[in-house]
Amino acid sequence: MAAGQDRAMPHPVLIIAHRGASGERPEHTMLSYQRAIDQGADYIEPDLVPTKDGVLVARHENNIADTTDVATHPEFAARKATKTIDGETMTGWFTEDFTLAELKTLRAKERLPQLRPGNAAFDGQADIPTFDEIIALAKRASAANGRMIGIYPETKHPSYFASIGLPTDARLVAALKAAGWDRADAPVFIQSFEVDNLKRLKAMTSVRLIQLMAATGAPADHAASSYAAMATPAGLRAVAAYAYGIGPDKAMILPAIPGAKPTALIADAHAAGLKVHPWTFRAENIFLSPDYRVPGTPATHGRIEDEIRAFIGYGVDGFFTDYPYKGASARASALAAAAERGKD
Questions:
Q1: Where does the GP-PDE domain start and stop, copy by copy (predicted)?
Q2: Are residues 318 and 15 in contact, defined by beta-carbon separation less than 8 angstroms?
Q3: Which of 133, 153, 289, 343 has the greatest number of beta carbons closer than 10 A?
């Protein structure tokens, strides 16, 4: 097997379902993950945060004010708090202040109802899933569909959670080991915007690691001066010492200005031996690169498939999308076109 080849997956470009099929169902719910699997996703992505009793659950943030009905539960009114996490002060209800049993009494809701009103029709239909439940879903679906469906967990705010006595790295590794997924060829990637926890994880597991990068700012653990510095050829060589690939904001590859040309990031990452999985491809105008927007409102769906095809043409190895079926369609047409060109 060639170095770096993904034995578990049949395609050269991976479709990573961002929080599940979050363009069509409330994010980080079994509804969303199942929808993504049905639409052809290769991987489903749970962002992981801990409960008070140390159970890993899937929420984009530990503040669950916008993604659950917690505000309607009078028994939890006193849990409302203001906290500073990674330099950002926020008010709401936080997973680390609830036991798993308490969280399971809540119901998920759509985070962006103004942009995705159709998703709000599913409010109240799903609870907060645990990481173990998501692993079990991926295994059941793999057996039922006759194809491997992987998981792509993100460790959220690892330094913050360690600082309050709820470190997540060992819990994540233990769950993967229990699932039999502790090999470099397991259908798993672990991702983080921080650096030091990925370095720790490298010593704890053989699972492939992905260094996430934002278009601005720096890792919250202050392990690097900026994401921009990490994205230079020298920075990428340093990342390659502990990571299998990078997950950059797609604006780091195609700047978010009309008429932009792609940067050298993909070529530089590949030269360092890193795979490239950019985020996040969403259909709504507000999220698309400027050249792929269409007339209408911020919620109007633009030319997402054209955008994905362009990035596949640039050489990405996978991509995160809220709309896996559109990603699957774009990938199929891009690969068919490439195969046709190869006949010439």
A1: 13-331
A2: yes
A3: 153
